[in-house]
Design a protein that fits this description.
With 302 residues, this protein is mainly alpha-helical. 21% of the residues are buried.
Length: 302
């Protein structure tokens, strides 16, 4: 707090007195705690993101082994179902040790991908009845997974007084250094949840290709400030649009022209929830008992 930080008398007694007075006057700032349901979605999203990062590390290791042996597989994505078998077959052209490592990496890729797919089904089950998630999905470029991430990281939209405050929370506003009549604008602050900023920037790459409004603004900015800075500017604009959508309970302004795209996204989300059981302590215990998950202790479930 500024009052404590700038105090010349830095003692526990004096700091406690300042805090007590702030509390009495109702000036003590509070930290936001999301509802239990929202916090649970955050945990699933962040774990799903860690699985994606793990798969990326596995892919890099596979590419490294193939390159070391001069093996090239012509494909846009060699980790598609059609080409994974060719990766495994490449192990026959290597030393047994490298062949073993390659086979193990492919198996790990399968396992992590399977876990990620099951996790996405749980997220779809949790999000299919949340109005804010479906509203975010009306934006082209935001699928159910991104919508769940953005919704959970923002929390209750009412805690932001206006759109600029949400943009600042996302860390998408530039640093400002003012001295006299001169104002300097630096790089974005990158404050707030990095995951929220990641999904906004990632989503806007698609939004600027599909949405007529975003496409026009992006092309103008791209000519003036370059591609990378224009994308960040459009991500900031997307955060403003999202604030207005959630605060006013309105869908994306161009939904009429993109209704088919929205219907496909919702249809995909709902199809993923078929025959999927929601998570609870009993279902997790059955999962562990069936050998899908192996833990040395189940004390965490008690």
């Amino acid at each position: 707090m500024k009052a404590i930080y700038e105090s010349y008398k830095k003692t526990d007694r004096n700091d406690a007195r300042i805090l007590a007075k702030k509390l009495k006057d109702g000036e003590l700032p509070e930290s936001y705690l999301p509802p239990v349901e929202t916090d649970a979605i955050r945990s699933l999203i962040r774990y799903r993101r860690s699985l994606a990062e793990e798969n990326n590390r596995i892919k890099n290791q596979v590419h490294s082994i193939l390159a070391r042996h001069g093996i090239s597989i012509e494909a846009t994505d060699i980790f598609g179902k059609r080409f994974l078998k060719r990766i495994q077959e490449s192990g026959d052209k290597m030393q047994p040790e490298d062949g073993y490592i390659l086979a193990d990496l492919v198996q790990r890729f399968h396992d992590v991908s399977s876990r990620a797919e099951n996790l996405e089904k749980q997220l779809a089950l949790a999000g299919k009845d949340i109005p804010e998630v479906k509203r975010l999905m009306t934006v082209p470029g935001i699928g159910f997974y991104s919508a769940m991430a953005i919704y959970s990281e923002i929390g209750e939209i009412s805690r932001f007084p206006d759109a600029p405050h949400l943009s600042a929370y996302c860390g998408l506003v530039p640093r400002v250094d003012q001295s006299g009549d001169t104002t300097y604008y630096g790089h974005i602050t990158k404050s707030g949840p990095s995951l929220l900023r990641f999904f906004l920037v990632n989503s806007v790459h698609t939004t600027v290709k599909i949405s007529a409004t975003f496409k026009t603004s992006y092309r103008k900015l791209k000519k003036r400030i370059g591609k990378n800075r224009a994308i960040i500017a459009m991500a900031r604009k997307l955060s403003i649009v999202i604030y207005n959508m959630l605060a006013r309970n309105q869908d994306f302004v161009e939904l009429g022209a993109l209704q088919d795209l929205y219907d496909r996204k919702v249809g995909k989300m709902e199809s993923m929830t078929k025959n999927v059981q929601g998570l609870d302590k009993e279902s997790v215990k059955r999962l562990i008992g069936g050998g899908v998950i192996k833990l040395q202790s189940n004390k965490l479930l008690s």
